[in-house]
Amino acid sequence: MYLIPSDSPFWVQSSKILRPTILLISLLVGVHFIKPPLNYAQQHSNSQAHATALSLARARSLLQAGKVEEALASLREIRLGTSSDSDVHLLTGICLAMMAQPIESSTELNEAIALRPKYAPTYMSAGLAFASLNNLEMALDHLSTALRLDPDLPNLRFNYALVLSRAGNYAESEKQLDIELGSKTRRTPVSLDFWRLKARDAYSQKKWQDALYSYTRVRELEPDSAEAYSAIGECLYSLNQPERSMAALQRSIVLEPDNETTHVLLGKIYQSQGRDEEAIAEFEIAMRLVPDDREVIFRLSRLYTKTGNMAAASNLQKQLKTSFAESNVQSINEQKATVLNNTGIELERKGYRLEALEHYDQAAKTDTTNLVFARNAALLLCKIGRTQEAIERLKEILAIDPDDAKTIQILTVANEIAAGNLSEKETLPESQR
């Protein structure tokens, strides 16, 4: 059994990535390791030890059936004083964690570890219990200890990777999954949960090619996964393959019609191709799903203006102004975005290009109305060799403002670089404040 993430797509709100959710039922991962010692009857013939063994077996069965309170009651009846005390404390701690009692759970888990300090399954189960309580620091500490004690413990490395991903350490999570994958033989099946986590880690790092590969594996194992199709569509879009991207996104919408982000991405592709009416249709759906998405409002107002629907454009512009006025964030967002952009320029000058790219992207998301920030991100992508991704972003900017001279200039150079004229990279302009 694995520590399984939520089945819901993890980019359902304004393109923000939601981290995988740890399910309480996953605490049962370690339960099957908790068992009386071999030859228990011969070693412990007294009635107390026999009663303890029966109570532990009953508690495990109740936990596996989801009857947490009954399992806890069974454990409370056990008289301590046998070699199974560690198991009693561990199961009690798991029950309390599943009942959202962190202090009491922590006490029991620590007691279990103290009684059996070099037993990896105890650390593993304790780590998952702490994870369910959202104490990720303690969870990772216990899971890493379990990994040092027994690197080959079944399911341990996967669960460690999942908690790392939950904590936002996608790169280390991906590293652990690669180790796990390398340990498998060709005939060993790789689970859907494994590929989904690997795909999410790559996606979270914007490693589009790796994410595309892993999400393709997800789709093979789960043909009707809206998440997989949506992510594949975004990966292909970022790799400047809009036609293939559209096919994947359209399939995702069939499977999950109410995913606002998929509609927005499809609308962007239509907009960049000059298919204004289709773009409008997608943005209108996205706006019905998330009425306050300022980027959608902004794009839709520009499209209405372009197609001559001035009344609708005026209404959206008023809505956008009202939204900013009510939340009083426009000037704050502009300031934040400017700081992010300027910091990105300084990082780029010092050679920290990936960090600079992250700042440009954040600036563009913070202030969606200022195309300078998005242009700086596309420009840097071109400089670091991610030319196809840069071209797609530049086309997206021109779909909003076809007369942007700097964007046209950069796109011309990017197309030359993509055609193999690498020396043209030297003619790229500096990022703009």
Automatic annotation (TrEMBL):
Keywords: TPR repeat
InterPro entries, sorted: TPR-like_helical_dom_sf, TPR_rpt
Lineage top rank: taxon: Bacteria
SMART domains linked to this entry: TPR
Annotated Pfam families: ANAPC3 (PF12895), TPR_16 (PF13432), TPR_19 (PF14559)
TPR repeats: 120-153, 226-259, 260-293
Protein name listed in UniProt: Tfp pilus assembly protein PilF
Organism from which the protein derives: Edaphobacter modestus
